[in-house]
């Protein structure tokens, strides 16, 4: 009964910070790019507060 409601709610939900970071890391083309992206995340790329 609640299955369609849950699927609809998941479709409208915003990805978490961890999900966005992982998607960003998964987009790396090589090891150098991956390390660069890791440094950006460590410096707070997705965790900026304003």
Structure report:
This is DUF3563 domain-containing protein. By secondary structure, this protein is mostly helical. It has three helices and no strands. It is elongated, with a radius of gyration of 15 Å. The termini are far apart. The relative contact order is 0.12.
Summarize the structure.
By secondary structure, the protein is mostly helical. It has three helices and no strands.
Number of domains: 1
Q: Summarize the main sheet.
A: none
Q: Regions with pLDDT < 50 over 5+ consecutive residues?
A: none
What fraction of the residues are assigned to beta strands by DSSP? under 5%
Count, helices: 3
User: What percent of the residues sit in helical stretches (DSSP H or I)?
Assistant: 55-70%
Secondary-structure class: mainly alpha
H/E series:
HHH
Organism: Rhizobium oryziradicis
Protein name: DUF3563 domain-containing protein
Which features would summarize this protein structure in a list?
elongated, single chain, mainly alpha, about 50 residues
What order do the helices and strands come in, and which of them pair?
Blueprint lengths: L2 H10 L4 H10 L4 H12 L8
Helix pairs in contact: 2-3
Protein name: DUF3563 domain-containing protein
């Amino acid at each position: 009964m609640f299955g369609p409601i849950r699927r609809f709610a998941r479709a409208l939900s915003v990805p978490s910070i961890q999900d966005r970071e992982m998607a960003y890391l998964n987009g790396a083309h090589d090891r150098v790019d991956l390390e660069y992206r890791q440094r950006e995340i460590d410096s707070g790329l997705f965790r900026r507060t304003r």
